[in-house]
């Protein structure tokens, strides 16, 4: 659906985005991750046709031009006409996306219902809460039924309940369209996305499936606690590395291969060590993110 090759944006002497390349398939949900200043917003603006790249190529739906009528875009800080009602605003947005007067009326009411604002269509936007405005912004991006939905930090300004509502909408939307969204809330990305693009200083540090990222960079650790002391012998086992003793009878460590779990437990039996607790501890996406980004 979307293919990006060598995408670059230079402001004077500063490279905001530096030779970025990736591909997105139909009905994928892709998270663009990175710290502030990584180039996330600049990238999304180029992909949505709002900003002209310095160099590089964007191919969308088989064409080397960005067809904005088939893209829905929600900026990080959407602007509204506060004197408009929600339905007036969506009709205005729909007409800008070349919907007919007849279609825009029907679609406006349909998306208001979808985002949970069906009872607020005749209310002035000036009286909307932050969460309501964010849902209205999402409705604006959906009113013309785009094939690609681009969302810039869609949940960053929301409280926990508002964040949950928008994430649930995104989970449902990815059944119908392709989604590319930026976020710095890694837990949210983990819940919604299939693929990850990690940016740092305008360059990609990782592009690929979330599952592959976890498999490649995750180093599981193990926690063992016992009635007896683990000192003096556990660290001497050749397959145990990175051992840390929280107390003499409790340790966290790595195994050179997961196959050594049985051998370790057998060693405990040979030494008459009474195991109280044994578990494998996996890294969170945040820990993997810090590792890949070199933070």
UniProtKB/TrEMBL annotation:
Residues 2-226 form the ABC transporter domain. The keyword Nucleotide-binding applies. Keywords: ATP-binding, Nucleotide-binding, Transport. GO terms for molecular function: ATP binding; ATP hydrolysis activity. InterPro entries: AAA+_ATPase (IPR003593), ABC_transporter-like_ATP-bd (IPR003439), ABC_transporter-like_CS (IPR017871), DrrA1/2-like_C (IPR025302), P-loop_NTPase (IPR027417). Pfam families: ABC_tran, DrrA1-3_C. Belongs to the ABC transporter superfamily. This is ABC transporter ATP-binding protein. It comes from Bacillus glycinifermentans. The lineage of its organism: Bacteria, Bacillati, Bacillota, Bacilli, Bacillales.
